[in-house]
Amino acid sequence: MASLVTCPHCGARPKEEFTVKGAALTRPAPDASQETWFDYVYLRDNPRGAYQEYWHHTSGCRRWLVVNRDTATHEIFETRDAARKVTA
Amino acid sequence: MTPYRLSSGGLVDRSKPLSFSFDGKEMQGFEGDSLASALLANGRLLVGRSFKYHRRRGILTAGAAEPNALMTIGEGGRTEPNTRATVQELYQGLTAQSQNRWPSLDVDVGALNSLLSPFLGAGFYYKTFMWPAALWEKLYEPFIRRAAGLGRATYEADPDGYEKSWAHCDLLVVGAGATGLAAALAAGRAGARVIVADEQSQAGGGLLSETATIDGKAAHAFAAETLAELAALPNVTLLPRTTVFGWYDGNVFGAVERVQKHVGIPAAHLPVERLWRIVAKEALLATGAEERPLVFGGNDVPGVMMAGAMRTYLNRYGVAPGRQVAIFTTNDTGYALAADLEAAGIPAAVIIDSRSRPAPSGYNGRTRIISDAVVSDASGGKALSGITVRTRNGSETIKVDALAMSGGFNPVINLACHRGGKPQWSDEKATFLAPSGLKGLSLAGAAAGIDGLAACLEDGAAKGTALAESLGYGSTQPSFGAVTGEIAPAPAKPLWTIKGVRGKAFIDYQNDVHRKDLGLAVQEGYGHVELAKRYTTNGMATDQGKLSNVNAIALLAEARGVSPAEVGTTTFRPFYTPVSFGALTGTSHGHHFQPVRKSPLHNWAKKNGAVFVETGLWYRSSWFPRAGETGWRESVDREVKNARKNAGLCDVSMLGKIEITGADAAEFLNRVYSNAFLKLPVGKARYGLMLREDGHIYDDGTTSRLAEDRYFMTTTTAYAAGVMNHLEFCAQALWPDLDVRLASVTDQWAQMAIVGPKARAILERIVDADLSNEAFPFLGAAEISLFDGAVHGRLFRISFSGELAYELAVPAGYGESVADAIMEAGREDGIQPYGVEALAVLRIEKGHVTHNEINGTVVPGDLGFGRMVSSAKPDFIGKHMLAREGLNAPERPQLVGVVPLDPAKSFKTGSHILAKDAAATLENDQGYVTSSCYSPHIHSTIGLALVRRGSSRHGEEVMIWNGLRDEFTPGRLCDPVFFDPANEKLHV
Ligand SMILES: [Zn+2]
User: Fold this and answer.
1) What's the CA gap between B426 and B927, in Å, rounded?
2) What global pTM score does this model have?
3) Which of B285, B400, B414, B622 is buried deepest, with most CB atoms within 10 A?
4) What's the CATH code of the domain at A59?
5) CB-CB neighbors (< 8 A) of A56 in chain B
6) Residues 732-751 of B with CB under 8 A from A
7) Which of B417, B833, B883 has the alpha carbon at shortest distance from B625?
8) Above 0.90 for ipTM, yes or no?
């Protein structure tokens, strides 16, 4: 029922304020192959453990976030603004 | 004084008598009573009927685990079924009704089920499904439904209020018994922010039933003193009457506070229940332990009670359990009860101890003790009359009217297991303990398997101190002085299977699961704990097996010849005790169920006689009936004809509106729309198509360029929020390097469509700008002023109706007066308001699509929008999937018009299209009607449809099939544009 997501802008907020979109994948380059695009649109990993997802702070600051969470324990390891580039 | 009330003792206030009724009979109790204690004081032993066999049942416990004493409390909209009498506080005028009996509690026809019990054993429900289906529906199910059941919910509205709150703390202490109070005091004195939640009417837990003293003070006085100190600490919050029912992610706890469940008429300014979500850095469970029943024959006869409960009724409520009391125990706590009974002047007749050992050292009573013995059966009808005691040497029958039983203790670890941790079996304690290694939650006292008051006080103080220190609050551990008069407990010797049992020996009282049912489950291959649970329904009643689960597991283990550790437990889930829908709903009911969205033109529409329709949260005007009109169609036909002949005004404020600014706004739009936007000139509007990344159409609308770096986008009403989220995703997550800003301005603008041949003439009277076709042609967009500069707004020459039309946006607060002014300005030209019904007719006549057609499965080509997919752009959302084979298949459904061959015939939206002579089968289905209406210009029903290869089949005769009504209408496919196909009216 209740859990909290820590928004990098707003702090710990009830998860009801957020909307989850799904896997935080990198959009392929426009000239990428059909196969690459197909994977991006349709194929998803379904890991037990850490998973990066796009979450939207819909009823808060309205920023899109990348939430790294454990699909088994629901523990959230990290949240960051989706616009913040990370070096892989 | 009522028959079983002692003349003194207990914490009830004998100076404050309360009257209440049970099954219509008036009774008396005292302030401080629970409903259960008051019933017992009145000698009411039989309080309910069991679920399946309708056996007579009495009060078994004094707390939340009660499986038997479930009653319907209150009247009218305040009726609450399945209330446990053991936790319900008595109040003046309380009305209680017993449940699951007919015609009355004492004489119950359903008890005949007991005679059918050979057929109602474990797996009964599953086996019954194997019987002929017809009999099941007509005979068995109605019978079972009537015979087995709990209380009934009321159909009347609940007159009371509920609310929800969040709370934050360093330490949440669950349970305010000895352990919890000690822990809270330690952490509270240290300065930590502490919340103490206790589910009982009075905090103190077991201290309220205890006769031992602490530092020379009565245990209940110690509790009161400690509570007073806690209440005085500003950093401590006490939540009485609050059950913590769940442990959730992020160390958030759900709790329900019964604010006014102990009063007859709740005060209107307070909720009756408050749902708490408590965010705790650390939590300490001081939830105590639940005493285990013993599984002997007739262990459900009224008068058989848990030993601890009997001690509570005696010491806390001053109620004698009977005149002749027996105690059947596997541990030392039975002796504490014997000592208390003797002190109260009703010495127990006998103690039956399953162990062969001398009485504990602290016990000096004179009660007869039979050791190395068991009670194999209890007998009696409405009340207990005797017990059979078996020893190695034989058996003995003893006449008693009350029997206390104690099979040992199970720590209350439910909350600790709500997040996936599995309970751990302890051979030493002969029960399950909480999982180890939990983060943010620990257990203390009896909940951690610790026995005895002194040890619990010590453990609570130590853990409270340690937790405060871990949170950065240094302190010294409180000490409480000596505990005197306690019978020091020795470890229990578990007793699972009792030999020589003759009668039904119940494990789960509420669901009527007895020992043989478990044996049957094992025998029939359902011995796994999860299977046995479902096969026998053990632990599936509203008490969720609080008393029965450990007994069931241990008996399964014995039947399978393994350790309980190997059997394991079923999964613990919230809620710990039932939570009312009212509490979960909070304020979101009735008028406040969901927000109401009213357009800034709502009052204008209302003044003009609109009939409103709810679409999503919006109230939209459907049509505007006039005097003399006999039906909605008459009004809509008039509105449609008038809009095409003179002029109409329609409220379109609920369209989504988004302001897009920034140096890269043009590039951004070019990427989110499938058609080109980069070169849209300032002062122009353009229709845009937005795709999903998988190539299907997501939404459509118009976007106007108001300045080099400023755009105004409209979306459909339904997708206003979704498009905003989508654009923010594109701007923030996909292309953060683009300089673009987005703002939803849906609520900032009142927007109205002024439609029809006379629209220009009318607008010219209030708009300051030149509106001639040359100065402001089709798809013009401009910031304009009205009434000689009095109001500033935006004007767009766009048309959903196919007529000469404008959309005028003014700041929301001016909406109503501007609409009034337009009506006034257009009076002589015959302007009339029109609603969404007429709007739909106008757009269907023109073949314009909405989300009826953009149904999530169509790509641009399906709707004839192929040319709106730019091949020149290197990238836009959806481009890369559009080339996929399936999205270009020749057999795809395409947008087409459809009319009945006979104009007098009609058809409905949703009807399917069949080839002319094809049979009505799924295989022959060629598509369906997505929109339809009566067109007063075509003089028949017209429709838009998505039909296989539809665009190349204009003129073909088909059959329109309504499978729901079994109607067949011969029809013809046609061009989806029914009216003014050359768009001559648009450009005048
Ligand atoms: Zn935020």
Assistant:
1) 65
2) 0.89
3) B285
4) 3.30.2270.10
5) 725, 728-729
6) 732-734, 736
7) B833
8) yes
